[in-house]
Amino acid sequence: MKKELKFKVNGQPYDIFVEPKKLLVEVLRDLVGLTGTKRGCNSSSCGACTVMLNGMAVKSCSVLALQANGAEVVTVEGLATGNKLSPLQKAFLDHGAYQCGFCTPGMLMSSTALLAENPKPTKQQMKEGIDGNICRCTGYNSIIRAVTAVVKGEYKEAK
Amino acid sequence: MSEYSVIGKRVHNVDGTEKVTGSAKYTFDVVMPNMLYGKILRSPYPHANILKIDTRRAKRLVGVKAVVTGKDTLGRKQGIWRRFPELCDEEILCRAKVRYIGDAVAAVAAIDEDTAEEALDLIDVEYEPLPAVFDPMDAIKEGAPQIHEGVELNININRHIEWGDVDEAFEKCDHIREDKFKCSSQAHVCMETHDAVASFGHNGKLEAWTSSQSSYYIQRLYADMLDMNESDIRVHNRHTGGGFGSKFELDSAQFCAAILSQKLCRPVKIVLTREEEFTATKRRTPMYYFLKLGAKKDGTMLAKEVRVITEGGAYTAMGATALYLTGFFSSFPYKYPNYRYDGYRVYTNTATTSAMRGFGAPQSTFVGESQLDMMADDLGIDPVELRRKNGMTPNYEVPGQAFIQSCGLHQCLDKIEEHIKKQGKLPPNHGIGVSAYGFMSGGIFNWFNTPYAFSAALVRINIDGKVDVYTGACDMGQGSNTTLSMICAEELGVRLEDVRIFSGDTGICPPDLGAWGSRQTLMSGNAVKRAAAECKQQLIEFAAAKMGANIVYDLDIKDRWVHLVDRPERGVSYFDIVKETIRGKDGVAIMGRGHYTPHRKGMISPAYSFGVQAAEVEVDPETGRYKLVNVTTAHESGTVINPLGIEGQLEGAIMMAGGYGFCEDQPMDEGKILNPSIADYKLIRSLDMPETDILEIDTYEPEGPFGAKEAGEGLTNPTAGAIGNAVYKAVGVRIYDLPITPEKVLKALKEKEKQTKKAKK
Amino acid sequence: MIKDFEHFAPKTLKEALALLAKYGDDCKVICGGQSLLILMRQGLVAPKYMVDIKGISELNYIKDEKDGLKIGATTTHRAIEKSPVIKKKYPVLVEMETRLASIQTRNWGTIGGNICHGDPAGDPVPVLIALNATLTVAGAKGKRSMPVENFSLDYFEVDLKDGELLTEIQIPVPPPRTSTVYTKFNIIESDLATVSVAASVTLGSGDGVCQNVRIALGAAAPMAIRAKKAEKVLKGKKITEALLSEAGEVAATETEPISDIAASEEYRRELVKVLVPRMTKEALARAKKA
Fold first, then answer.
1. Helix axes B643-662, B719-731, angle to 10 degrees
2. CATH number at residue C108
3. C213 plus C127 within the same structural domain
4. The CA-based dihedral angle spanning residues B694, B697, B700, B706, taken in that order and rounded to the nearest 10 degrees
5. Which of C75, C180, C81, C177 is nearest to C131 (CA)?
6. Could you report the per-residue pLDDT of B580-605, keeping only the tens digit for each?
7. Which structural domain range is residue A70 located in?
8. Do residues A20 and A53 both lie within one domain?
9. Which residues of B touch C (CB under 8 A)?
């Protein structure tokens, strides 16, 4: 039996009915229609589905959608403000911190959550911040360089 | 200062903004009106006859729209080696026999994925299990189960390469080493699993969206398997979430979606699960390697003999090419005057092995570079020096095989030597290992039997001066759309933002063999460059007439300025010239065509890249655990078109190739892959990633566009060997089989300790 | 594919226990779901009813009390990792948490869920054993408590009877001059343990005498275990390299490791032999500084 799910995605309130077995990633992609959030595994291992739930990075394939009842969810589509990219998005572009791009939404969400929590992370903390996300293309170091550039304030004007 | 205005600049990828905003649409994201979802039933047996398939219960399930089996196909067999019909051996939907755990036997289309999956449980398949064989060394024996009818000793294909007089040369050697190695398998682990949306219309034409490295191959193989005209099939290549060699053969998602859609005339989407991705798609070829290497006291390598037996798995796929290339690249990057290779690809009842980034060369480089270090040790010669003494140089001919024009191997060796010296004395249990490598810039071979040019492109200039490039090349994340756009912009004298690229859509783009064998920068790049040049020529003709310049002057276009080469201030706006040229041509947009097919460039590739890598490890001698501390690479790939792209290729290759050396493996039990999930298949993550440094080497490849050559796959070759050599330098043990796990290192350390004690007694 | 189920989200422990009593065997408790949802996707677990205790705030707390630390079962890993009081008084818990899976998992996954999952390679249990922790479970008939080392029964099997819920973890105040450390061996940093070792050492007033020691091993048996014989080797003695090495050898005999794709049984024993002395020594060194 479907149950009511009231939550906000990227600031937009939704009031929908979902089957209890639906995972947050499925609701975001199939019902809310935001396909930026990806799925790459079936074992909570790859991080491609990472979103922010009440400000925390979570793997949306490992959260029942109903557990997001009353919560604020931010997906990759919520990072830019109008046509202005977020500092991390700009830094990812400048540092080539993506290739095929399939892990990129998850990487951006993990990095965004990291900086929201700790605006001055050490390199080790940055690595920890994205360790739950697999990238098969970049080798991670360009992502760390992008995050570092933001931490150093190189993208302040982009706010 | 660079003479170029576009290439060599650090630019955003042309599709970068879409990728960082989540708006990039992959096949995974495609949703169409009236679309159904498909799932595939796979064999639980490694080898069995299919006696009966009863789909009635599945068809009765509410929401199921169609169930198909091999009987619903034409019964044809696909293969990439189309020149050799006997090597086209994969039905995809098996009719009478399954040959590995994961072979497809039926497919379902239903209103949603869950229903389709539920229906799979309702398909009753009666199998007659057959004796199976998993190791190629067993499969090649007399009396082993025969996997394909009429294939003696399960030998799928053999390759022989030889030059010089190997036997005579060994007689002259002062020292000969014989070593055995075993290279493991590796999974591609593309973040986007194989997927396809196939849509047949009532007109009998097929449109497909799929995550692929070669839309043309998929189109052609669809045509073969469905007995259709190529032109009635349109394959779109959306953003592709990684390929690495796994996505240029017709796969079960593509084929089953099409068969289902043909029946229903509705779009059908199939996305393979991660488990299917691990068990039922192709993978890197495991190889048994037997090496004999002979040298003079002074380190001159006189002869090398290589025998390889590869685990083919159930079907040929691109594995035959891997067999060939591992044999050729076993001679790399050295000048062996005498060389012999014999390779056998053997069918086994395991998942098919095929192309994966490096394509046979990571294996040959691991074993070759390990053995070379052992030889250096035996001869008391510094490993870098030994490589220098025998390394390839520019304008070298690999006898009867290949001609190497540009080659920066020696500069790379110098840089790496400098890097190692700079590290000074290392802390205890640290070691730096070196590995040298080379790779091809696109293959010359045409086993696919295409009647088309290997690469082709169209360039069109519109009235506003903006440029459209049409290419069959596929961007799977490596950034070819950006590189090709840069080449076009540079050639045409416009800015990168003036160029828009349409790629991998067989409906509008000229055929191109696609993204494999590191071919796109050189081959597709040349095609794009020539197409752009043809457009430019038309503009220059009009400009020359308009400007009334003396005919002795050459004209060129740079940064949107059409001008006299010798007097750059004399010129006119590119945009004005475009408008006038189109008007002058009776309103026809300016079009240029370009193509590239290598001719008289040997048997392998028109150009080769080279490099040397140094890996530093820190070993815990009590547990065998080691840490990848740093990987420094000196790489030369000719002119760098897209520096950000090359850096990305380089660092990413280390994640993948380091993984091949360090942790990635596909252990099996009776043909069943034991770790078919990302939880169990170990991948290097950010905390495990070593520091990476790049030492740039300048070279210029005359055959490449603006002097460029490959930078995609070669970088996957050296790392496993460098790690093996580093572990040896650190703690004095040699590991002969991949991956180099802590457990193996500890075992070797204990063995060494035992031997030392024995010797002391 | 996850099978359909009915979902309940009780707000209080009492409501949750009532639901568990009502649906018995047909229901499963979910909290963070970080392990459970994987099993459900694989079809290994398919409950008809799901009691979702994630929202029970009365079980979500970290309390530093006179007799020790109390952690509510639905407290997330991340809350433990970031708790200033835990960082100050029980730093080993923070060290353990930072190596537990990924931040995403720690943000949503809970300490109670991890313990109840009963994975012998899980990180918290060996540390809790070394810290001499107890667990409290509640059921329709009331509460009961047990030492954490008695809770795990076998692979993925814990001592929870039908209708019972884990509610709290209690960690006693460690005696003076005590230090507890944890490490896990694996190839990929954030992966599950191939073998893990937690060691707690209490120094006596005398010079360097080990008054008490607790050693716990993860992934070395069907459940996290205490290496009691190894503890005996060290207890009450002045620690020497030879004794440490003996403790490692003895600990290895107490294990019942499996061979799997991560490591062979023999290699796991070797790791225990190396890591037990190493971690005990580390604990000793830190206890001296404490």
1. 50
2. 3.30.465.10
3. no
4. 40
5. C180
6. 999 999 999 999 999 999 999 998 99
7. 3-78
8. yes
9. 113-114, 117-118, 622-623, 625, 662-663, 667, 674-675, 679-680, 682-685, 687-688, 741-743, 746
Could you tell me the two tokens for B614? 């140094």
The mean of the pLDDT values for chain C is 96
Q: How far apart are CA B369 and CA B120, in angstroms?
A: 48
C102 and C162 inside one domain? yes
A115 in Cβ contact with A59 (< 8 Å): no
| CA dist., res. C174 & res. C90, Å (int) | 9
Cα–Cα distance between B581 and B558 in angstroms, integer? 17
Q: Report the amino acid identity of residue B36.
A: L
User: What's B16-23+454-596's CATH class?
Assistant: alpha beta
CATH code for the domain in which residue A112 is found:
1.10.150.120
Domain containing C34: what range?
Answer: 6-52
Question: Looking at A47, A78, A109, which one is the last position of a domain?
Answer: A78
Are the beta carbons of B327 and B362 closer than 8 angstroms?
no
For residue B419, which of B615, B610, B654 has the smallest C-alpha distance? B615
CB contact (8 A) between residue C190 and residue A21: no
Give the type of residue at C191.
D
User: Distance between CA B193 and CA B138 in Å, rounded?
Assistant: 32
Is A55 part of any domain? Answer: yes
Segment holding B339, helix H or strand E: strand B338-347
Preceding peptide of B739 cis, ω within 30°: yes
The overall longest dimension of chain C from CA atoms, in Å, is: 63
Q: C187 and B741: CB-CB below 8 Å?
A: yes
Give dist(CA C181, CA C192) in Å, integer.
Answer: 17
Collapsing DSSP to helix, strand or coil, A16 comes out as strand
Q: How far is B469 from B557, CA to CA, in rounded Å?
A: 18
Question: Do C102 and C147 reside in the same domain of the chain?
Answer: yes
Residue spans per domain, chain B: 16-23+454-596, 31-130+191-242+247-279, 359-434+606-757
Tell me if the domain spanning B359-434+606-757 has CATH number 3.30.365.10.
Answer: yes
A102 in the same domain as A35: no
Same fold, B16-23+454-596 and B359-434+606-757: yes
* Calculated CA dihedral for residues A129, A132, A136, A140, nearest 10 degrees: 10
- Binary contact (A41, B678; C-beta < 8 A): yes
**Could you tell me if C98 and C119 lie in one domain?**
yes
Residues on A contacting C at a C-beta cutoff of 8 Å: 1, 3, 19-21, 23, 42-44, 47, 50, 53, 56-59, 61-64, 66-67, 69, 110, 113-114, 128-129, 131-133
Q: How far apart are CA B461 and CA B464, in angstroms?
A: 8
Q: What is the pLDDT of residues C168-211, one digit of tens each?
A: 999 999 999 999 999 999 999 999 999 999 999 999 876 779 99
Please judge whether B691 and A102 are an interchain contact, meaning their C-beta atoms are less than 8 angstroms apart. no
* C62 and C164 belong to one structural domain: yes
Taking only the tens place, the pLDDT of each residue in B166-215 is: 999 999 999 999 999 999 999 999 999 999 999 999 999 999 999 999 99
Sequence-distant (6+) residues with CB within 8 A of B688 are B628, B662, C188, C189
Are residue C167 and residue C214 in the same domain, yes or no?
no
Could you tell me which chains touch chain A, where touching means 3 or more CB pairs under 8 A?
B, C
Asked if C190 is an interface residue toward chain B (Cβ–Cβ < 8 A), one would say yes
Q: What pLDDT digit, counting tens, does each position of C9-24 carry?
A: 999 999 999 999 999 8
Q: C28 lies in a domain?
A: yes
> Would residue A159 count as lying in a domain?
no
* CA atoms B59, B60, B61, B63: torsion sign: positive
Tokens of B419: 């890097």
Tokens of B160: 């022989």
CATH code linked to domain B31-130+191-242+247-279: 3.90.1170.50
pLDDT digits (tens, 9 = 90+) for C25-42: 999 999 999 999 999 999
